[in-house]
Amino acid sequence: MRAVANAVRLIHKFEERAEWGVSDLARATGMDKAMTHRILRTLLQEQWVEQNPASRLYSLGPALRDIASLEPSRSDVLKVAAPVLDDLVERFNETVLLSSRHHLVNVVELIRECSREVRVVSEVGRRIPLHCGAAGKTWLAFDHPSLIERLLDTGLKAYTANTITSPEALKAELDEIRERGWGFENEEYSVGVSGIGAPVWSSAGCITGSVAIRAPSVRLSRATAAEMAPLLMKAAADISVRLGHRAKRE
Predict the structure, then answer these.
(1) Range list of H helices, the chain
(2) Smaller CB count within 10 Å for the chain: N or C?
């Protein structure tokens, strides 16, 4: 299992840089150079990486790119999600966001603001650590288990008094999110702001986005979130279906 874990560590390094030499990759991962080279040669045989004959540098290979092609393009997701977000804003009159994940942060991709004078304001491209928000915790709950381990390796930074900084507490909350199907934040990244998030699924059955409602905490308690959750999850499911996802039958 250690060999598999080391191979995964190597592959994740290509999220940081497109091309790597063996020596640099070994230093970046803290692994022995000979071991790094052996793993790369195995990945090369399976076309998970490829090597430039001239530079001798390694990059992600066609096998991984084929897997990635199962995911919808961001433009497709935005096009499909826009009318659904419009409906949510009309229903709840609170700010609604669609987000994606980049490394260990949640990234806002699309925003629909409400008409209230006091409201949560955001911007496209805003990045929020995964452990702090409803959308981010949704990613942690439904993405591959290695994601939470990667996050814990970096530590859980506190942004407010309510930020979850205990690995055990975070894992327990993620279990609850998986069980009920939606995430909740209570002033964990910004004081005075609460939120609720639900996952969007791709045709391959992987989480590919998160729909969230963020509002002033005085209007969005945990009890209020529970009342809003069924419609939010239905909206996320509608986007998922339009992206080709087929829900598993009970």
Answers:
(1) 2-13, 22-29, 33-45, 62-68, 74-92, 134-142, 146-154, 167-180, 222-242
(2) C
Is CATH 3.50.50.60 the right assignment for the domain spanning 2-68?
no
- Domain extent listing, the chain: 2-68, 74-242
Reported pTM: 0.74
**Domain spanning 74-242: which CATH class is it, in words?**
alpha beta
- Angle at the Cα of 203 (from 199 to 204), degrees rounded to 5? 90
The answer to whether domain 2-68 and domain 74-242 are alike in fold is no
Nearest to 204 by CA among 133, 138, 137, 144: 144
The Cα–Cα gap between 185 and 197 comes to 9
Per-residue pLDDT of 10-50, as tens digits, reads: 888 887 777 899 999 999 999 999 999 999 999 888 878 88
Task: Please state, in angstroms and rounded to a whole number, the distance separating the CA atoms of residues 226 and 70.
Answer: 33
